[in-house]
Amino acid sequence: MLVIRKIYNILLFLSTSTGAALLVSTFFLNSDMRCSDSSENVSLVLYYLLGSLFISVPISLALSKKRLSTAQYGLFCFNRYLMAYILFAYAIAQIYTQQFNIQYFGIDQRIVDLSGMDFTSAFFAFKPIYQKVLGWILLAASVTLCFRKTNLLGLFVLLPMMINIVLLNYLFDICLKLNSSILLITLLSILAPYVPSLYKLTFTNKAIAARRPAIFKTENKLYHTISFIKLITIVGYVTLMSTGFFENRNRWYNLNSPILQGVWQVDSIQTQTDSFPRFEKLYFEKGRHGIAAIKNDTVTGFQYMIDTNYHQMELWNFHDFRTLDFKGRYKLLSNDSLLYTGTNQKDSLSILMSRISKYDKVIE
Fold it and tell me: How far apart are CA 183 and CA 334, in angstroms?
């Protein structure tokens, strides 16, 4: 029986140390918000995993039962806090509806032409309130993960959410499989110490006790002081992160300037510029970027800025037409008609556009 208990403690330590190594590796992956599943990243994660086993196996065999339990509990807490730290960013991004975005150009495409990433992003962003609710649930569960008496509740909420995310990434071929798999494995490693207690609860109806800290024998004043400091730190960090997302939204999103946002049919173009592209539609997205559809079935991205006080508007950085740089003023002829007059470089330019209002009913 003692041998079995020793083997269990070693396996528990190895699972916890593996989760810690995988979680740390996510900070060194070469990725952006859309993809992390490169062979280079997979190799990096394997190096961290093998390095963790190379270090943790001798340690688990050398330490006594008490010290091994203390080390395991330390890694257990490390995984909880680092997992919460990572999930806070995802939660705040969802609350500010910045993780999933739906674009006017995207809803103008057929489903068969959408990638798995674009399809799922459009689904989650179609109703912003849905994304916000998910964000608040994720934030609350992440906070409970930081406290000894509530972390099991957080695990019961986070595990189904993470399993769903992993399934979406694999089934819809979204290039974030590696990240989501690491998060799921780490959550399972945090759950591992509770497996015997969950078994007893299921088959013998015995209550599950919170894991006792390895440092404190009783919940004394120092213990409660540390818990209070931890709560203040979490509130401060989440507030600081929220401020950053709020400033980013105000900087890159023209939320207070809905005059231009939407899809506009280009009725006529008058210019002195030779070989001027034959724009058919202009998609002004919520951010300071847009897409121009050209009559030969090609598209090009661009950036724009609008000043509603002086009725000024600029369009620049056309990806396939670097010589285009619009500066001028706009005039609303009606609610659905706009005349833009200005210059492209030094040549005069006039564009008459009419809003296609059906798109405004889709994106809130």
Answer: 52
Q: Span 184-212, mean pLDDT?
A: 80
Tell me the β-bridge partners of 33: none
Answer yes or no: are the C-beta atoms of 16 and 192 closer than 8 Å: yes
Tell me the β-bridge partners of 224: none
DSSP alpha helices (H): ranges in the chain?
A: 2-25, 39-62, 65-95, 104-107, 116-125, 128-144, 151-171, 177-191, 195-204, 221-252
Q: What is the pLDDT of residue 305?
A: 87
- CA–CA separation, 65 vs 362, rounded Å? 61
Q: Are 142 and 87 in contact (CB under 8 A)?
A: yes
Q: What residues contact residue 205 under an 8 Å CB cut-off, 6+ apart?
A: none
Query: Which residues, in sequence order, are bridge partners of residue 312?
Result: 307, 329
What string of DSSP letters covers 198-226? HHHHHHH-PPPPPPPPSS-SS--HHHHHH
pTM of the model: 0.79
Mean per-residue pLDDT, 222-247: 85
Measured CA to CA, the distance from residue 242 to residue 180 in angstroms comes to 23
CA 287 to chain centre: 17
Q: Which residues pair with 349 in a beta bridge?
A: 271, 342
Written as six digits, the tokens of 37 are 């599943």
310 touches 301 (CB < 8 A): no
What DSSP string runs through 314-358? EEE--TT-TT--EEEEEEEEETTEEEEEEEETTEEEEEEEEE-GG
Yes or no: say if 325 and 316 are a contact pair by the CB < 8 Å rule.
yes
Burial of 5 (C-beta count, 10 Å sphere; 0-12/13-18/19+): exposed
Compute the distance between CA of residue 18 and CA of residue 79 in angstroms, rounded to an integer. 10
Structure tokens at 350: 């006039």
- Of 70, 223, 236, 235, nearest in space to 149 by CA: 223
Q: Which residue has the tokens 């399934």?
A: 167
The amino acid that residue 315 corresponds to is L
| Token pair 């809003």 in the structure block, residue | 355
Q: What is the mean pLDDT of residues 199-222?
A: 70
